[in-house]
Amino acid sequence: MAESVHAGASRTLLDRIEQAALLLAALSLGGVVACQAWQVFSRYVLNAAPSWTDPAALLLIANAAMLGAAVVTRREAHFAFAGLVSAAPPPLARALRCFSDATLIALGLALLWIGGTLAAGDLHVAMAGVPLPVGMRYLPMCMGGALIALFAGERLALRLRGDA
Amino acid sequence: MIARRAVLAGALAGACAPRAETTRTLTAADVHRPDYPTVVAVRWIGEALERETQGRLRLRHYPSGQLGAEDDTIGMARFGALDFTRINAAALNNRVPQTRALCLPFVIRSVAHLHAVVDSEIGAAIRGAFAGTGLVALAIYDAGARCIYNVRRDVRTPADLRGLKVRAPQSDVFLRMVAAMGANPTPLPVNGVFQALSTHLIDGAENNWPTYDSARHLEMARYWSNTEHSYAPEFLVMSKARYDALAPNDRDLVRALALQSVAPMRAHWAQLNAASRTRALSAGIVESDPDREAFRTAVAGFVAEESRNADIAALLARIQAIAA
Fold this sequence. Notes:
The complex is a heterodimer. Chain A is mainly α. In chain A, helix 1 runs antiparallel to helix 2, helix 2 runs parallel beside helix 5 and helix 4 packs antiparallel against helix 5. The longest helix of chain A is centred in the first third of the chain and has 45 residues. Chain A is elongated, with a radius of gyration of 20 Å. Helix content of chain A is 78%, strand content 0%. Chain A is built from five helices and no strands. By secondary structure, chain B is α/β, with parallel strands linked by helices. In chain B, the strands form two sheets. A six-stranded mixed beta sheet of chain B has the order 7-6-8-5-9-11. A five-stranded mixed beta sheet of chain B has the order 2-1-3-10-4, sandwiched between helices. In chain B, strand 6, helix 7 and strand 7 form a beta-alpha-beta unit. In chain B, helix 2 packs antiparallel against helix 11. Chain B is globular. The chains are: A mainly alpha, B alpha/beta. Chains A and B meet through helix 4 of A and helix 3 and strand 7 of B.
C-alpha cells in the first residue's frame, strides 16, 4: 500500500515535469514566431536588421524539439516499428518493449553526456550576434536527453512492475 | 566461389595486417563546392598523405556544406567527430580573438602583405593561439580581398552606403565593420545571399571576386566597388582529439603537408580570382575605385575599439611593421 502511494506521488511529480516541458516547448515555439516576425519587421520596415533574431530562433527551435521529443517519449506517441512486437508472443513482446525502453534510457543519457561535454567546453566563447555563450546551443540537447532518460526509466519501471 | 574465397582471404589478410590499428580514414569538411581552391588543397593533402603512408592514412572529403555550416563543423571537430574542417577567420573571431587581427578593416594592405604576415612568426603565433580550443590550426589559406557590391549605385564614399542594407557574415567583427563603413549590416549565411538580393531583402554584400561570380551575385548586384577592406583568410583546422590520436610521425606529416599545400592553393586562388573578375567584367558589371582613405577614416574608431584588447593591439602593431 505504502509503495503504491509512493509510486503515485512520483507519478504526479513526473506529470508535473511533463506539463512543464510541454509548456516550455510551446513557449519556445511562440518565441520562434516572435523572433521571425520581429526580424521581418525590422529588416523591411525599420531598415535595421538585428543580429540576434536568427541565433535566438535556432536556440528556441532546438529547445522546442528536444522538450517535445521527451514528452512524446513519455506518452509513447513517437514513431515506432510495431510490427515485430505485435507479431511476437506476449512474453517476447514484453521483453522487446523493455529492450526499447532501455535503449531510450541509454540514448537519453548519451545525449545528456555529449551535450554536457559540448556545452561545458564552449561556455566561455561568445556567440556571434547574441550576447550568450556558444555552450547554450547544447543545453536543449542536455535537457531533452535527461528528460528522455527519466521518462523512459519510468516506463521501464512500470513495465517491470506489470502496470504497462 | 572464387569471389567468396577472395573476400575471405582479404578479410583474413586485413585482420592479420600488423599495422591495422594505425590505418585510418580521416574526414574533412568544407562549405565550398568541390572545385573551390580550399577543397582542392585539402584533397591534395589527402592524396599526399595516402601516398606517403602507403595507404595507411586516407582522406574522405565532404565539400558543399554536406556536414553543416562552418560553425557546426567546429563543434564536430572539437568533439572528435571530424578530423579537418576549413573555417573562415570571421567564424573564429570569438573563439580565438587573435584571428580578429587578420579580419579588421584596412589592416592588411594587399595580397602580398597578407602572405608576408601569414608566413612570418605572426601567422605562427595566431595559429598557436588555438591551443586549448580543442582545435589545431594547420594552415592559413587566401580568401582574396573583400569588396562591397550592391544593386543600387556606384559606391565611392561611406556616404554612398547610407541606407543600403549590406549582408555581413554572422560575426560581430563583420557586422560592426559594415556598420562603421556606413551601411546597415544584415547577417545572413552566404548561401542565402543570392535569394536575398533578388527579393531585395538586402541591397548588397561584401565578398571576393570568386564568390561574387560563382554564387551569381553579379546578376543582381551590378555595382562593384574595390574597397578591399578586409583580407580575412581561411583556416584549415584539425580536431585536437583526432590529432592526438595520430602517431607522432603522422602528426608531423599532417602538419608538413598542410603547410606545403599553401603555395599551390595560392596559385590556384590567384588564377580563379583573375578569371572571376574577367568573367564579371565581361558580364557588364560596373567596377569602380572608391576613396579608400575615406573608408579607412570611417572605420578608425571601430579599429581603435578593437585595439583595446592588448593581444590584438600587439598583433596589429607587428602586422603594420611588416613590409610589402
